[in-house]
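Forum: Protein Structure Q&A
Topic: Joint prediction for protein chains with partners

I've read a bunch of threads here and the consensus seems to be that you should model interacting components together rather than docking separate models afterwards. I'd like to see that in practice. Below is the full input, 231 residues plus whatever partners are listed. Could one of the regulars post the assembled result?
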Amino acid sequence: EAGVAQSPRYKIIEKRQSVAFWCNPISGHATLYWYQQILGQGPKLLIQFQNNGVVDDSQLPKDRFSAERLKGVDSTLKIQPAKLEDSAVYLCASSLDVTRPAPLKKETQYFGPGTRLLVL
Amino acid sequence: DAKTTQPPSMDCAEGRAANLPCNHSTISGNEYVYWYRQIHSQGPQYIIHGLKNNETNEMASLIITEDRKSSTLILPHATLRDTAVYYCIVLGSSNTGKLIFGQGTTLQVKP
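Posted by a regular:
Agreed with the consensus. Here's the joint model:
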């Protein structure tokens, strides 16, 4: 089974530029997550999708970050304009369907390799 | 979701068992204990999860105390490839599945 795919793997940009990351989840997974991981810290959730709807975007800096999952499969995360503090690894994860009733509800999340962003 | 406390770092000799503790004293009855690990330059990887009973799979064993206030992840025969940051996370049944990562425990397996 193919895992979660992300691209690009690395990106270097200057502050105030824009950047976009792409994620392709595991086939059939309804739930998709984007996490931000700053060096030395654990990942922090930015946004969660259930199919093509947003479940949680409370930690997404909406003035500069946006994300979409138009057809309920692939997703893109965009930063515009980037700041120095956006330098981090951006991780995408997917799971089968967290809306299924317990005890099935607790679905494992599968993570992609991440995109390492450096903002200069 | 309950907060967890883990030691920042641990060492283990290759071939020996690695026992990673986690304290979750405020856990409630419907909250699960999950363990993930993150090898350098990779995304986190699911290891195991449990509610009340001890659990074992091909990667590890999870021992949860009777009062559920703490748990231990056991890697029975640690190898150099087990060197990673290990995260203990508590998830409630009402949670949307969002993982709240702490600092985790950096496990260094030494030859």
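Strands of chain B lie at 9-13, 18-23, 31-38, 45-50, 55-56, 61-64, 70-75, 84-92, 105-110.
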